[in-house]
Amino acid sequence: MLKFDSSRPAPFGFVTEGFCETIGRTPLLRLGKLSEATGCEIWGKAEFLNPGGSVKDRAALGIVLDAEASGALEPGGTIVEGTAGNTGIGLALVGNARGYRTLIIIPETQSQEKIEGLRAMGAEVRTVPEKPYKDPDNYIRISGRVAAQTSKGFWANQFDNVANRLAHYQSTGPEIWEQTKNRLTGFVASVGTGGTLAGIALFLKEQNPNVQIVAADPYGAAIWSWVKFGHTEINDGDSVAEGIGQSRVTKNLDGVKIDQAYRIKDDVAVEMLYHLLHAEGLFLSLSSAINVCAAVKLAKEGGSGQVIATILCDAGSRYVSRLYNPGWLAQKGLTPKAKGLEFLDRL
Ligand code: PMP
User: Fold this and answer.
1) Which of 26, 103, 221, 304 is at a distance of 20 to 30 A from 229, taking alpha carbons?
2) How many domains does the chain have?
3) Are 239 and 268 in contact (CB under 8 A)?
4) What is the mean pLDDT of each successive set of 10 residues along the chain, which is 347 residues long?
5) If DSSP codes are grouped into helix, strand and coil, which group holds residue 10?
6) By alpha-carbon position, which residue is closest to atom 7 of ligand 1?
7) Does some domain include residue 10?
8) Pocket of ligand 1 (CB under 6 A)
9) pTM
10) Residue 334 forms part of a structural domain
11) Which ligand 1 atom is nearest residue 56's CA?
12) C-alpha distances in angstroms, 198 versus 164, 205, 254, 298, 303?
């Protein structure tokens, strides 16, 4: 059976057995200007180089391998999921490579690029009206019912299926630990399902309980409140970041020790997005920029000498009509203005 094995050579420059075997073992990139500015080492895990283009390829593969092993996903079966983006892409491509159909339930408010993109990759896509999570007709809840009604249907259930965080415990965590030569002092990630933060945190704390685990939250999410105060009641504000912004403690987050949390404002994150593009050549999503902002905040608060890693989740090409569109940015009041790194003072 295919399994994550991070000790295999990195795929770049090597041959691999195909799509699924090319997932993971991504490079760790030194963010030079930010490292110099803080006196710390700040590293970004290049998850946008996964073959499906995001960190969620790992979760998609982990969930499918786990379901194959348990028998929940039968040969010729259909993977069903409620998702607005990267997980759907990962599941559709892993599904194609391993012989499954994929059926995606998506809120009709999502961009046509995403809906048509998933269809182009071979997924069946059903659009539904946008409803809050507590509503029985919320897209995630519908996906669970559709899976139960589908012949050989399997509900991926990325938020509460801990095969998601296990994929990161088995692959991303060991890779980062090895790539930083066991010197890592802090790890930072934002939360969608929480699989990335939780799986990596569980692995790193086993290697060294002193590694600081930090959640990076956009405004409008409740994970900062949960880490700081033990409840999810504070979720004021709003963010245009896609793929992150959680309001509840998912099963993937449950029981994980998180030492610190920061809230990052969209306008500062957009400045970071353009710094990473223009100064480092990295074309990324806003969740990636929020992660890097929180890594810099940890560097500044903890002082020089720290070795901090975070996640570069997916590429900017998925957000050209928004984050890289001056008209859209102006309409949202998010036009970047910084000449240098002075925006770091606003973290
Ligand atoms: N960034 C982006 C762009 C994403 O799509 C996701 C996944 N929803 C995340 C970050 C967060 O990953 P996780 O679900 O593992 O918390």
Assistant:
1) 304
2) 2
3) no
4) 69 79 95 98 98 97 98 97 92 98 92 87 95 92 97 97 98 97 97 98 98 98 98 95 94 98 98 98 98 98 98 94 96 97 97
5) coil
6) 243
7) no
8) 54-56, 85-86, 190-196, 242-244, 285, 287, 313-314
9) 0.96
10) yes
11) 7
12) 9, 10, 8, 18, 25
